[in-house]
Structures are given as structure tokens and as C-alpha cells.
Amino acid sequence: xxxxxxxxxxxxxxxxxxxxxxxxxxxxxxxxxxxxxxxxxxxxxxxxxxxxxxxxxxxxxxxxxxxxxxxxxxxxxxxxxxxxxxxxxxxxxxxxxxxxxxxxxxxxxxxxxxxxxxxxxxxxxxxxxxxxxxxxxxxxxxxxxxxxxxxxxxxxxxxxxxxxxxxxxxxxxxxxxxxxxxx
Length: 183
Description:
By secondary structure, the protein is mainly alpha-helical. The protein has one domain. The chain is 79% helix and 3% strand. It has a two-stranded antiparallel sheet. Strand 1 and strand 2 (7-9) form a beta hairpin. Helix 2 (21-46) runs antiparallel to helix 4. The two termini are 21 Å apart. This is DUF1772-domain-containing protein. The chain crosses the membrane at residues 76-99, 105-125, 163-182. InterPro entries: Anthrone_oxy (IPR013901). It holds the Pfam family Anthrone_oxy.
């Protein structure tokens, strides 16, 4: 037993608690929702996309940089959203009577985690596809070919749509954090 002032920790009790499938599922959900939420906060505040607003570049370069950031992040963030959602749903399913009050919250966390992929495919695709196609045209030394809005305007609009994904993942993260603290 380790005595840390008012906090006394019995290592076997801590290991038993961490070994619980319920706690492991909540912890996994929290870990992956942390990656999604905090990673996207970092990217949205100090990554490539916000820097495009302050650096003077031609639209072709902006599209290429945006596409690089999108292509780099999409598989990682999509995976983290799905694993987080599955973990929260698993935790809700595994909740013992002692944790019954957390079940509806864990379901909400799972739904919020799963929000990003369909939002991206159904709502953001109409913004993503023209930007990715413009990047492909630039790589083939063709004209940008964006109709209507400029690349900067499309990237700004993408950033606004992206806030919905960040917000939903923030809700999942807060619920996961609360669940792990209360469990």
C-alpha cells in the first residue's frame, strides 16, 4: 500500500479497477475522444488551416496545404471517432447496476463520437470534394477551377463546418471525462 498524504492507494485495488471491462471501455473511449477533440482543437487553432488566413499565398498553394492537412488527418481522426464511439457504446452495454446512471450519458457520448463521419460524408463533402479536386488540378498544372467562391472562402467555410465536429467531440470528451471520474 502506498501512502500519499490523504490519498492511500492499494496497487491491487487500482489494478482490479483498471481491469474492469467497463472501466477499460470508458478509458478507451476517453483516450480516443481526447485524441479527436484535443487534436482538432490544436489543428484548428495553430495548424495549417488557421495559418492560411495570415500568410500571403496564392490560392493554388492554399488548396495544396489544406489538402495536405485534410489527407493527413482524415484517416487518424475518422478512426479515433469510430473507436471512441464503439468504446462508449460498449461501456454503456457493460455498465453494471452500480453504473446504471452513466448508461444514457455513455450512449450520448457514443452518438457524439459517431457524429463526425456522417457529418463529413453528408454535409462537408460538398466543400471537401471541390477543394480536393482543385488540388488535383493544381498537381496536373491545370487551373484551380473553383467556381463561385475563392479557395480562401471555401477553406473558411470548411473551418466553420468543422466546428460542428469539434463541438460534438467536445461533448463526448466531457462526458467520458466525467464518467471516468465518477466510475
